[in-house]
């Protein structure tokens, strides 16, 4: 058995042990409370193994080398929290005045589909598809067919469960795989998109190169990339601290600079037609508002529940409850460490957003030339 198939087999077995077989019927905190306790402790340890506060080259290299296992473990332990706090699309969005949270999320997905030029009947790849929230929305919106690629077995099982529930099985499929080493034949997809996922790659050239390979000549790739902006200075300790919080709390081996991302697209052969930071718009309601705790930004009454869970106060409440449940043995050991790591994520993301050092919505649209050779 090759190293890749052996890793896949181990991850699939571990996932079954941790989450059990009955993936669909529970979500959010109820799913979280039904984990196998020994496996959960192991998953938390695997995720946090390389996060020891160090930012030197060796520490970074360890995180980059272990990207697959550590990201897989990260999503094993945060997916239920994400669904509980945020819903089933795991990304940020811009907000219009008066617009409801979930409407804004869907609009952000529609916008990417529009920029990618996705048409009815297209075969589309969703790179790092989460539990399939964006794929469900984009397939309904455009009438295209989507294959979601993901290296997390739990999320794939959930995505398949939702497709069945919403009768989208004819348009959607979800497959296990590492976006650094894709199994698809070259020139397979009409369009490819990625939403806040390729930042988990140890090398952007690596993942973009794979996308270029599987895209048909003349095809389009559209991505919302997580990058550090022009204002970011790696040698400034305050800036580096913010980047580290984002890396640790979001399971990212290394946050790259926007120029690295743009250069990587060009280096693998793409022609970049759009490079625009959607966060750089002076929006009245900032993209990071749900994590701030600032009630003045809440747009509709229907957002109050979501806002409470995502706000500083709501997070403290969840964290305290989880800690209590862990102490009395209801929640698995290590769960409090997860809520602390997510707290670091929230703090780093808001600080990065306020200072415009970081963006989760660097929009790149890139074309594979019609005359491209393999
Ligand atoms: C990790 C990447 C590349 C993208 C995910 C973006 C966001 C969906 C998440 C980033 C930080 C997350 C947090 C939560 C939900 C999902 C995020 C916003 C919580 C609000 C979930 C509920 C917990 O109690 C607190 C979390 C804070 C961080
Ligand atoms: C923040 S989530 C975004 C999910 C989805 N795009 C969405 O917006 O809901 C990042 C996703 O990338 C996936 N991912 C991370 N590293 C991966 C890898 N090496 N290969 C495939 N998928 C990966 C994660 O499992 C997760 O589903």
TrEMBL record:
It comes from the Eukaryota. It is an enzyme of class 2 (transferase). One of its GO terms (molecular function) is sterol 24-C-methyltransferase activity. SUPFAM superfamilies: S-adenosyl-L-methionine-dependent methyltransferases (SSF53335). It catalyses: zymosterol + S-adenosyl-L-methionine = fecosterol + S-adenosyl-L-homocysteine + H(+). Keywords: Lipid biosynthesis, Lipid metabolism, Methyltransferase, S-adenosyl-L-methionine, Steroid biosynthesis, Steroid metabolism, Sterol biosynthesis, Sterol metabolism, Transferase. GO terms for biological process: ergosterol biosynthetic process; methylation. Gene3D superfamilies: Vaccinia Virus protein VP39 (3.40.50.150). Residues 74-369 form the SAM-dependent methyltransferase Erg6/SMT-type domain. Its EC number is 2.1.1.41. InterPro entries: Erg6_SMT_methyltransf, Methyltransf_11, MeTrfase_SMT, SAM-dependent_MTases_sf, Sterol_MeTrfase_C. GO terms for cellular component: endoplasmic reticulum. Pathway: Steroid metabolism; ergosterol biosynthesis; ergosterol from zymosterol: step 1/5. The keyword Lipid biosynthesis applies. Belongs to the class I-like SAM-binding methyltransferase superfamily. Erg6/SMT family. This is Sterol 24-C-methyltransferase. It comes from Torulaspora globosa.
